[in-house]
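Researcher: Here's a chain I'd like modeled. Treat it as a single chain, no partners, no ligands.
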Amino acid sequence: MAAMASRSLHVLRTSRSTSVPRLASRAGRSRWLATAAEASPSSTPPPLDPTIGRIVDDISGLTLLQAADLVSLLKSRLNIQEIALPSAAAAPAAAAPAEEAAAEEKPKEKTIFNVMLKSFDAAAKPKVIREVKGLVPNLTLIDAKRFVESVPQVLKENLSKEDADKLKSTFEALGAVVELE
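Model: Modeled as a single isolated chain. Structure tokens:
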């Protein structure tokens, strides 16, 4: 057992010593590639006019407050008018009062409905159970019976007005009392 442990330790030591130079050579190559990328010219072309290059250098050295003052001074000197650009925070804030005014004028019409089974005739119970079983996928007959017997229950949620009316008329034809919420 001790011989086996010493062999394993020897294998580990030799594998570490052989892998270190390999990693060092890779690190040297990646360092060389990084410095080569820095030495290559940037993707932006150099300015053609030395005056423009000097101005760009001066502007890039300004602080944020100095740059804002420069922009306002250039706008006044070149007679450039302020253009109100919509900002991300101002747009929803401005739209909110307009929506409130529209809501006060006309109440919103409900477009999504939940169909609720309130009650049913005792004679129509088997028909209602079969319809519920067909309506809800993966529902067994016993589960459909329990569902119908535990009224009031929501049959379907988030239906459009047309679909909700169709479902309501189907269950009312069977003898059930259905309500749209």
